[in-house]
Specification:
The protein is mainly beta and about 300 residues long. It has three domains: about 5-60; about 70-230, no CATH class; about 235-300. The protein has no helices and 27 strands. The chain has strands at about 5-10, 15-25, 30-35, 40-45, 55-60, 60, 65-70, 80-85, 90-95, 100-105, 110-120, 125-135, 140-145, 150-155, 160-165, 170-175, 200, 205-210, 215, 220, 225, 245-250, 255-260, 265, 275-280, 290-295, 300. The strands form six sheets. A nine-stranded antiparallel sheet has the order 8-9-10-11-12-13-14-15-16, with no helix packed on it. It has a six-stranded antiparallel sheet with strand order 22-23-24-25-26-27, with no helix packed on it. A five-stranded antiparallel sheet has the order 1-2-3-4-5, with no helix packed on it. A hairpin with a 4-residue loop joins strand 22 (about 245-250) and strand 23 (about 255-260). The chain starts with 5 loop residues before the first strand and ends with a strand.
Length: about 300
C-alpha cells in the first residue's frame, strides 16, 4: 500500500512562509529567510520531491535600495535584457545564445516574438510567433512563421484551462489544482519533476523554454526570484474585492484606501479597466496629481 505524503507549512507573524516539511511518498524539509522588505533571501533544505529534490538558493539584496546588488539596473531590472517604459522585456538572449525580441498589447500581454529556432538537427532559421488572448486574459492560440502555421490552441471551461490542441492535431487533456497549476511544485513555484517544455505551469504562469524564464505576463524573473512589476495573480496589488481587509472603502467615492500605505485606489471613471492611484486622499480632486495607473494585468503607467 502506497503511503500518501503529508505536507506542513509554518508562517511567521507577517504571514511569510518560513518552513515546509513533508513525509511519506515525498519527503521535504526546507526553510526560508527574508529581509526587512520581505524579499526572499534564502531557501535551504532537502527532499526527494517525488521526482527531484528542491534547489537551495540565496539572493543578495542591497538593503539601501531594495534591489539585488549586481546584474540589475538602477530601476531594478535585469541587465541581461532590454525593457520598455512599462518594464516589459522587449529583448534578451535565448538559452542557445541568440537574440529574442518581444512586443505587447496595451494590457501588457505578449503578442509577438521573433528569434532563432531549429528546423532540423543541423539548421536554424529566424521565425516569428503571434499570440492571441481572450478579453479575460487567457492565452488562446499561438501561430508561427515563416508561414504562420498553427502551433497550439488552449481550451477553457469555467475560466480554467482544460485541454490543448497541438500542431499535430492531438488533443491533450489538462488537469490543474485549485491555483490553476499543472504538475507538482515546491513553494515559490519550483517544479518537482521539470520537463523543460514550454507551457502553462505554476498558478497559470507560462514557462518559456527558449529563453529559460518563467512569466507571469512577462514579469517573473526566475534568476533573481523577483517580480519586475506587481504579480497579476494577486490582481496587481489593488483591492481585488471590497472584502480585502487591507483596503477600506472611501465614503462617497468609487475608491479604496490602502490602510498600510494610505494610498487611495480609484477605479478609472472613463473606462473602468484600471486603477488610478493617489498618494494622498486630498489629491483626489486634482487628476493631474495621480501617482500611477495600474491595470489588473499588472501593467503600470507613471507618465501622464
Amino acid at each position: 500500500m502506497r503511503r500518501l505524503s503529508r505536507e506542513r507549512h509554518q508562517y511567521d507573524s507577517l504571514k511569510r512562509l518560513i518552513s515546509a516539511t513533508a513525509s511519506g511518498s515525498m519527503t521535504l524539509a526546507q526553510t526560508y529567510g527574508y529581509d526587512g522588505f520581505g524579499n526572499l533571501l534564502s531557501k535551504t533544505g532537502s527532499g526527494n520531491g517525488g521526482g527531484g529534490g528542491p534547489v537551495s538558493a540565496s539572493y543578495l539584496i542591497n538593503p539601501a535600495t531594495n534591489r539585488p546588488f549586481s546584474g540589475h539596473t538602477a530601476a531594478g531590472l535585469p541587465t541581461s535584457g532590454g525593457f520598455d517604459n512599462d518594464n516589459r522585456m522587449i529583448s534578451t538572449l535565448s538559452t542557445s545564445g541568440y537574440s529574442e525580441y518581444f512586443a505587447y498589447s496595451p494590457s501588457g500581454k505578449r503578442v509577438w516574438n521573433q528569434g532563432m529556432r531549429p528546423i532540423d538537427p543541423f539548421t536554424e532559421e529566424t521565425v516569428q510567433e503571434v499570440w492571441f488572448w481572450s478579453p479575460q486574459g487567457q492565452r488562446l492560440a499561438q501561430v508561427g512563421a515563416p508561414v504562420f502555421a498553427f502551433k497550439e490552441a488552449n481550451l477553457y471551461h469555467g475560466g480554467k484551462l482544460v485541454g490543448q490542441y497541438n500542431s499535430a492535431g492531438a488533443h491533450v487533456l489538462k488537469t490543474s489544482d485549485r491555483l490553476g497549476s499543472f504538475g507538482k511544485y515546491y513553494p515559490y513555484g519550483e517544479e518537482r519533476n521539470p520537463t523543460g517544455a514550454s507551457g502553462e505551469k505554476f498558478a497559470t504562469y507560462f514557462h518559456d523554454n527558449v529563453v529559460g524564464l518563467n512569466y507571469a505576463d512577462q514579469r517573473w524573473h526566475a534568476n533573481s526570484g523577483r517580480f519586475l512589476t506587481p504579480d497579476p495573480y494577486q490582481a496587481s496589488g489593488g483591492p481585488s474585492d471590497p472584502g480585502d481587509t487591507k483596503f477600506r472603502p472611501l465614503r462617497g467615492r468609487r475608491c479604496f484606501v490602502n490602510t498600510e500605505t494610505n494610498e487611495v485606489w480609484c477605479r478609472d471613471r472613463d473606462h473602468g479597466d484600471h486603477w488610478e492611484v493617489y498618494k494622498k486622499e486630498k489629491d483626489l480632486d486634482y487628476r493631474d496629481r495621480r501617482h500611477r495607473a495600474v491595470w489588473d494585468s499588472g501593467c503600470i503607467r507613471q507618465r501622464f
